[in-house]
Write a structure and sequence with these properties.
Rossmann fold, alpha/beta, 6-stranded antiparallel β-sheet, 543 residues, elongated
């Protein structure tokens, strides 16, 4: 459960902390006080989208931080997960879990198993037929999940093979054109006889040839200096030291060292002399080097950034040519693979269809029971499962939820018959049915009671109260009957202080909670309104 929520610089919220509790937490307050901003903050911490326009005026960043008690998670430290998300006006976004930086996508994936936020947008999701199969599979989860995972892997491979088969080299004329182009490119690279490291050697050779006169002059000067001065000086030194070597071991040692230097330097001088003979500008050689480098640069522009990449591209050309030349055999192999996948996927898909049809009957029964309790006694819920001609990511089924709201009416799509209040109740019915299977510990309800009142509102409050027995519920509501069911009531107010508007949140005492329920139910706190609030509160005891 969320034990603490810290919000800073979101809209009119300057800096607030809310300590939530297990069970049913209800947030109430006048329109514009900041209730929606609190829900938006929970969405942000769950990895939802954020607009920099949400940052409080005259501030350059916002922060949402939550402490979540979730001892069963591998992420928990001392049973707690600390999640934070800081967003700056320049677009920079920092997400952390227990102090470790994570991406927004990582945050979203992790929080998906912890927080389920349900609001009016979820009602829109219910209206989209493509989502209906996911609700049914969620209800059938244990029976279908392993099969669906197996099918999904096969479906990916199936799509990949199908894409390969759909590659079109055109008719024979187009095919020949493609082969001519590929063979031309292959011959061009082959004829170049490229060798890895060759370009670097040619660059060095060109540099030497371009500076041959300067290099030759320097080598000659060096050779002359060594021969005429250094070696001559060393030779004389050896002669002088030889005269005294027998007088002391140290003289003999130094003589040996001088002789060693002389021989090393003599060898170096000889090598430099050889270099001098090698350094001779040859116009033909220079032209050959330039032509070779130009050819390599030309190939690099076409086929890769260096010789290694060009040779890799050459190998790919060979593969493409073989594929086109052996297209018939290739197509045969791919078709055999596709047929094998088709048979395996069809068997799995048929098994999933049977599971879905079996569970659809049970889901219909449970949701119809919930709709009756939610004051939709004449409504009837139906799960339609129709076969698809082509494989899709879910198998071979098209699942659609249909509803008949009156006795004798035909079953129709939700978009054709359901009002806002009816959609909210149908969605809540699904949530109630799935809540026993749902391992998500925290559920957020954002004004799910919109469009309902009276007995239906009372039923909705009872359903949410039931879910709170196994989940932490945080609920924003405008209905007194829902607020009366709360285990903990929070009031959101906005205050104007020094030309600045701020949101304040407070956990209400029982007396304060009764006053708030009375205000919601009648608009003002009167004796009669308080009596009505107390009556609603009494109904919630033991519920």
């Amino acid at each position: 459960m969320i034990t603490n929520l810290h919000i800073k610089n979101i809209g009119i919220i300057e800096d607030i902390e809310i300590n939530f509790n297990n069970g049913f937490n209800v947030l109430t307050g006048e329109t514009g006080a900041g209730k929606t901003l609190i829900i938006d903050s929970l969405k942000i911490i769950a990895g939802g989208r954020f607009s920099k326009e949400m940052i409080r005026a005259n501030e350059n960043h916002s922060l949402v931080e939550a402490c979540i008690f979730y001892p069963n998670s591998d992420l928990a430290e001392d049973g707690n997960i600390i999640v934070s998300r800081e967003i700056f006006s320049n677009g920079r976004n920092t997400c952390k879990i227990n102090g470790r930086l994570v991406t927004v996508n990582e945050l979203r994936e992790i929080m998906r198993d912890i927080i389920d936020i349900h609001g009016q947008s979820d009602n829109q999701k219910l209206m989209e037929v493509s989502n209906h199969i996911n609700y049914l599979d969620e209800f059938s989860l244990e029976k279908i999940s392993i099969l669906k995972n197996e099918y999904t892997e096969m479906y990916k491979e199936y799509c990949s093979v199908k894409e390969e088969l759909n590659k079109n080299y055109g008719d024979d004329i187009e095919k020949q054109r493609m082969l001519d182009l590929l063979n031309y490119q292959l011959d061009e690279i082959k004829n170049a006889n490229l060798v890895v490291g060759e370009e670097e050697e040619l660059e060095e050779k060109r540099k030497i040839l371009s500076n041959s006169e300067k290099i030759s002059g320097s080598l000659n000067e060096t050779s002359n200096e060594l021969n005429n001065h250094v070696l001559d000086g060393l030779s004389k030194s050896i002669k002088y030291m030889s005269k005294i070597e027998n007088y002391s071991d140290i003289y003999k040692e130094k003589l040996i060292q001088i002789q060693s230097v002389y021989y090393d330097l003599e060898d170096i001088t000889s090598q430099i002399s050889d270099f001098t003979y090698d350094i001779e500008y040859d116009q033909d050689t220079a032209r050959n080097v330039e032509e070779r480098l130009d050819m390599i640069y030309s190939l690099k522009r076409k086929y890769g950034n260096n010789i290694s990449e060009i040779l890799t591209y050459k190998n790919s050309l060979v593969s493409q040519i073989n594929e086109i030349e052996n297209k018939e055999e290739y197509i045969k192999i791919q078709k055999e693979k596709l047929n094998a996948l088709d048979n395996k996927m069809r068997n799995i898909a048929n098994t999933m269809t049977a599971i879905r049809k079996e569970n659809a009957l049970l889901l219909e029964k449970k949701i119809n029971e919930q709709l009756t309790e939610l004051e939709m006694k004449n409504a009837s819920f139906l799960v339609s499962i129709l076969p698809e001609d082509e494989f899709n990511k879910n198998g071979l089924d098209k699942v659609e939820f249909l509803v008949s709201t009156n006795v004798g009416d035909d079953f129709k799509p939700l978009t054709k018959i359901a009002s806002g209040g009816e959609i909210s109740r149908i969605m809540l019915a699904i949530k109630v049915v799935l809540s026993d299977l749902d391992n998500t510990p925290i559920m957020i309800f954002d004004e799910i009671d919109t469009g309902i009142s009276g007995t239906a509102a009372m039923s909705v409050s009872q359903k949410i109260k039931k879910i709170s027995k196994s989940h932490q519920i945080i609920c924003v509501t405008h209905l007194a009957v829902v607020a009366a069911k709360a285990d903990y009531n929070y009031c959101i107010k906005k205050e104007v202080d020094c030309n600045s508007t701020k949101t304040k949140v407070s956990l209400l005492t029982e007396t304060e909670a009764l006053n708030e329920i009375a205000r919601i139910s009648s608009g003002e706190i009167t004796k009669i309104a308080l009596q009505h609030a107390q009556a609603l509160r009494n109904l919630s005891i033991g519920a």
